[in-house]
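Weekly puzzle thread! Below is a chain. First person to post its structure in token form gets bragging rights.
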Amino acid sequence: MQTSVFRHLWIILVSTLIRFYAVVLNRFHVHGLENIPASGGVLLASNHISAFDTVFLPSVIFKRFPFQMIWAPAKEELFENPVLGWFFRSLGAFPVRRRRDLKAGDRLSALLRTEKVMLFPEGTRHKDGKLGEGNRGVGKIIYDNRPVVIPVRLRGVNRWKVTGLGQQGSVTFGEPLDFTELLELEDCKETHVRIVERLMKAIGDLS
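Winning reply:
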């Protein structure tokens, strides 16, 4: 998907400032970026433990792929404020209604053919840092679109304060997951559940 040079320059500026805060002013460690494919449809599936997640993940990925977009479906409430809505959209986020949103689903499917998409399979934050259950809808997304799936594990940032310095945290990008035998099964609820269970186990196994 084509995006303007000005948008890319804006994203590089914003992500550089975010990385300075996360990595230099604090101690946010990044592991496994080399596991992310350079091209093709990629689903980056991460646990969700803080509000920092939504900006930290794209910022570290942009360092490796500065002229690629990282798209992210996000709850529509985040876009109610016009200024914040513009900011989130400028970085690749797009709104999704809480109930079934066919338009957003079609856009997500189109993106997953060629683009990198960030998603939180739990569907909500777990501020205690514990890994919750994955939404079976994510299993359906994987079944229907067959992207490369990268499990991602965030740690520590659920204890961060915005004004803090020297805070410890990390993100690990795992190796692509193999769903081959599951994708050969019937397109049904049970298959989607098995897919997302494998995904969540892979996220949980990351150090």
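Puzzle host: Confirmed. Bonus trivia for everyone else. Strands lie at 27-31, 42-46, 70-75, 93-96, 116-119, 148-155, 168-173.
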